[in-house]
Specification:
This protein has a domain at 51-144. The chain has six helices and no strands. Helix content is 71%, strand content 0%. The chain is mainly alpha-helical. The longest helix is centred in the N-terminal third of the chain and has 52 residues, at 20-71. It is rod-shaped, with a radius of gyration of 31 Å. Helix 2 packs antiparallel against helix 3 (80-95).
């Protein structure tokens, strides 16, 4: 017996077919979120390494200047005792720089580094050797790369 067109049982779940596009969208969206999270993690790590390197590059350069001045302190004659006092204060400031990487320590590091830079400026003026720090930011950029800084670059030195 032949089935008439009215007797055909069309029991298709249309909701599944209609939701196929939405399901694929959700899968693609989730994959995009996961990929983005991985990339942001890596970018954050790279930025952290660069930031740390640049900050401690400056500290290393300043420590090098202190060692140089201490090894040649007798050449400064009449300002030797004043210079020795300023160098001691600068070393104390440098020793006070924290290497801990939490929000409070980073803020304290910035404050302490500003004190170090000010003391360094005083010493360079006293020695008449300002040229040793004039191009420090250019040196840091050449060696450590450039990055966006959180403070006004003009006010750094």
């Amino acid at each position: 017996m032949a089935d008439s067109p009215n007797d055909i049982d069309i029991d298709i779940e249309t909701d599944e077919i209609l939701n196929l596009e939405q399901e694929q969208y959700q899968i693609g969206y989730q994959e995009g979120v996961e990929q983005s999270a991985k990339e942001q993690y890596l970018e954050g790590k790279q930025f952290g390494y660069q930031t740390g390197f640049q900050r401690f590059l400056i500290v290393g350069y300043i420590r090098g200047l202190v060692e140089d001045w201490e090894s040649h302190i007798s050449e400064y004659g009449s300002i030797e005792s004043t210079l020795r006092n300023h160098l001691k204060q600068l070393k104390n400031c440098l020793d006070g720089l924290s290497m801990i990487n939490d929000e409070d320590s980073v803020a304290q590091f910035e404050i302490q580094l500003k004190k170090v830079r000010n003391k360094l400026r005083v010493i360079c003026q006293l020695n008449k050797e300002s040229w040793k720090i004039n191009d420090l930011d250019k040196l840091v950029e050449q060696v450590g790369g450039s990055m966006q800084v959180s403070e006004n670059v003009v006010e750094m030195w």
